[in-house]
Design brief:
The protein has 364 residues and is of the alpha/beta class. The longest helix is centred in the C-terminal third of the chain and has 35 residues. The radius of gyration is 25 Å and the shape is globular. 35% of the residues are buried.
Length: 364
């Protein structure tokens, strides 16, 4: 069985759909993004890529869409058809069981909006975004909208006490030897788990920002970042934490963007966070610099998967961001100079305002 067929077959497992549907943050954010922009959906043609059980298609129909093409390659499409009937939207929603790459719409019709919940672990796992971008290029009108319209991946150093702390004293027995071997084993592949905000050891950095309106598939083949961050608390440096945010379109300056976030600071989702565990941990002190290079590259054999690689760097030999939160002398000096410059600008602004006020008084 090829990787594509295996992928679609896996989505015939109802438990997977139950997990996604019961993810309140995920499902409610999509409902809110669609229903709070009914003016965008009213009388419009929509395509739902990878519709699954069809709930997003129903949201679009409820918001007033004239036509919804619900595209689903797996046999779960049969359930989507029943959900459409159950909600009496047979005249609006057409379920198409096919890969979107092979879909042909009547009269080569174009759509106004593409809706899709395509995100995998650390955003890109499963590679479904490729299909969404194919749909965009084939079916979306030039002034069409993508829901969501952008996505961002973040990374931050972290500790993982829930995995390791218990082995220091396990029922009165020290199991540090076992814990060390466990770290080695778990460092071979990413761990999907929920961590607490207090387990982050430094400020997150943006790994990638993807604009779904214009990003090309080839741009997703490889992502890389090199960074230095100052530790924000004393702790055990045990890995890197990855998460993503997805942002929906805004159609009014008075509206705040609707964001689906999988951050440790946000309500838990079924994506949780992705942790790249290190084979060895080390104690770090507040403001200590941590330097690393993180790369994500599409697997050559299975293009729905990515290989994640972390290289620990020497903070003395790499460029630091400006300003930098670490305690190295050059970074402290730069921060002091920036603060002095900011203070000088405030003083100059105050002096200028005082002069202008005096001139106004003299003129009067």
């Amino acid at each position: 069985m090829d990787s594509n067929q295996d992928y679609f077959t896996s989505y015939e497992d109802l438990e997977i759909h139950r997990l996604m549907l019961e993810d309140f943050n995920r499902t409610e954010t999509y409902r809110k993004a669609i229903h709070e922009h009914k003016e965008c959906f009213k009388n419009k043609i929509v395509m739902d890529v990878g519709c699954g059980t069809g709930i997003l298609s129903v949201f679009c129909a409820q918001a007033g869409a004239k036509k919804v093409y619900a595209v689903e390659a797996s046999n779960i499409a049969n359930i989507a058809k029943e959900v459409v009937k159950e909600n009496k939207f047979e005249e609006v929603i057409e379920v198409i069981q096919n890969e979107v790459e092979n879909v042909v719409l009547p009269n080569n019709e174009k759509v106004d909006i593409i809706v899709s919940e395509w995100m995998g672990f650390y955003l890109l796992h499963e590679g479904m975004l490729d299909s969404v971008l194919v749909a965009r290029d084939k079916f979306l009108k030039e002034d069409g909208q993508m829901f969501p319209e952008s996505a961002s991946i973040y990374v931050a150093p972290c500790s993982v006490p829930s995995l390791y702390n218990q082995w220091d004293n396990f029922h009165g027995v020290s199991m540090l030897t076992f814990a060390k071997l466990l770290r080695m084993e778990r460092s071979k592949k990413p761990e999907v788990m929920q961590i607490q905000p207090e387990d982050l050891l430094g400020t997150e950095i943006l790994l990638a920002c993807i604009n779904l309106k214009d990003v090309q598939i080839s741009e997703l083949d490889s992502l890389e970042i090199q960074h230095v961050v100052g530790v924000n608390k004393t702790g055990k440096y045990q890995g890197l934490c990855l998460w993503f945010d997805c942002t929906f379109p805004v159609f009014s300056d008075s509206c705040d963007p609707i964001v689906l976030s999988t951050s440790p600071h946000s309500p838990q989702t079924h994506w949780k966070q992705t942790i790249i565990l290190f084979p060895e941990e080390r104690e770090v002190e507040e403001s200590e610099p941590l330097a690393f290079k993180l790369s994500m590259s599409r697997d050559i054999v299975n293009n729905r998967r990515y290989n994640l690689e972390v290289v620990i760097l020497d903070p003395d030999t790499v460029d630091h961001p400006i300003p930098c939160s670490c305690d190295m002398s050059k970074c402290i000096l730069i921060k002091m100079l920036m603060l002095q410059h900011a203070a000088q600008n405030v003083d100059e602004k105050t002096t200028t305002e005082e002069i202008l006020e005096d001139e106004v008084i003299d003129d009067s």
